Amino acid sequence: MRSWSAIFAATLLVLSAMAVAGRDGRQSLSVIWERDLGKLIHESPGAGAHHHAVFELKISDDDRWIGVDVVADRTTMWEGQHHHLLLLPLNSINNAFEQYEFQQSRGSEEDFFLSGDGGLVLIQHGPAIRLEDRRLHSSCSLFPADVSEVLSPGGFMNEGLFVATRWYPRSVHASARYEVYEPDCKLVGAWELKGGNPATTWPGEGHLFIRRYMTGTTWETLLVEWPSWKTINRWSFEKGGLVADAGRVLCGMFLSDHFQCRDMATEAPLANPLVVHYGKPMSTSRSGTLAFGTDWFALWKPFTEGEHWAHVKRQVLWDFRSGAVVDSWVPESQNGDPSSLRSMGPAIRPFPFMCSLSSTGAFLVEGGNE
Q1: Staple partner for 218: which of 3, 43, 79, 214, CB 3.0–4.6 Å?
Q2: For residues 310 and 338, what is the distance between their CA atoms, to the nearest angstrom?
Q3: In angstroms, rounded to a whole number, what is the distance separating the alpha carbons of residues 158 and 210?
């Protein structure tokens, strides 16, 4: 087993069009390149020895750039954890890359977003949001109005505008404020919604996906149009999820303990003979019909409060429309203390390599330490 100080592997895979002769006649994934990111990361002067783990992976919609979020400091839980964000070209195996630094924010579901061409990078930096404009080599930041307000990034609606939500998670009935900004952090529009949670962008320009608390255990999900702020669709889903098939499908956990994909027009789960328990880490192709999920086995530890014995049985790539499995494998595991990833799996000892699908499903990027 190689130590972190010696190797950090991020393996990029491309789907093969040819079936492999073998069990179940499944197709394979062919490796394009493998990179030792440990040789690329620039540590700050005086930084002590520490382990790393891959926390999040994303590919720009044009399949040109890979964003790799690396947890770089596990001495603190959530707030205060230091992260490296590496941006690498997908089609090159040279050492060209860019690196950004940020501190993790408590409760942040996504730490960064890439614009469609990777020219803009939106980062959650502690309580603030930072926009890095790689085209103009400039940056700007937004800050919460007070200590109770939480500022959450929501991604890009097109190549110029990004979304931020100002909300109060400790007060479910408080109004959330949704703001749209230009790349220089100039506000161009805002809207408030009582009970609203952070917004994320929807495939296509000018749409926001918003979860809203109603009352008791009742939630709804809204699709809101920009710049009119008109609600153009409404669903009774309790939880959000991952957009797929150009906005026609939403995949996630919902009220079950296994990965589901739902038709947004009918709200009905897609018929799927494949059962993937828990699912995380999971990913979908935003404009395609592929989904990736992690199938866990978990068993409650008697006489404990929510602790489980758990391990990953497999990771699966499949077509959620047909149910056909493209490939399935037993993943490698990340080494070191898994505390920084605890919210992402049932009982994470050890936690598997992270994976992410490109928008079209043509590429799968995998990363972790080993």
Answers
A1: 214
A2: 13
A3: 18
Cα separations (Å) of 118 from 37, 122, 160, 323? 19, 10, 11, 32
Residue (of 218, 226, 145, 141) closest to 178 by Cα position: 226
- The answer to pTM > 0.70 is yes
Buried b / exposed e along 289-300 (16+ C-beta atoms within 10 A): bbbbbbbbeeee
Distance of alpha carbon 203 from the chain centroid:
15
What 3-state class would DSSP assign to 65? strand
186: tokens are 């100039």
Mean pLDDT of 33-40: 79
**Chain centre to alpha carbon of residue 288:** 17
Are the C-beta atoms of residues 370 and 2 closer than 8 Å to each other?
yes
Whole-number Å distance between alpha carbons of 211 and 238: 8
Compute φ and ψ for 245, nearest 5 degrees. 55, 50
Residues near 177 by Cβ (< 8 Å), separated by ≥ 6? Answer: 165, 166, 167, 190, 191, 192
Q: 298, 268 in Cβ contact below 8 A?
A: no
Q: What are the pLDDT digits (tens) for 122-149?
A: 999 999 999 999 999 999 999 999 999 9
User: In this predicted model, what pLDDT tens digit does every residue of 218-248 receive, in sequence order?
Assistant: 888 899 999 999 999 888 765 567 889 988 9
Sheet containing strand 65-71, edge to edge, reads 53-59, 65-71, 82-89, 98-103
| Burial annotation 226-253 (CB, 10 A radius, 16+ → b, else e) | beeeeeeeebebeebbbbbbebebbbbb
User: How far apart are alpha carbons 351 and 281 in whole angstroms?
Assistant: 9
Cα dist. 184→100, 137, 191 in Å? 18, 11, 20
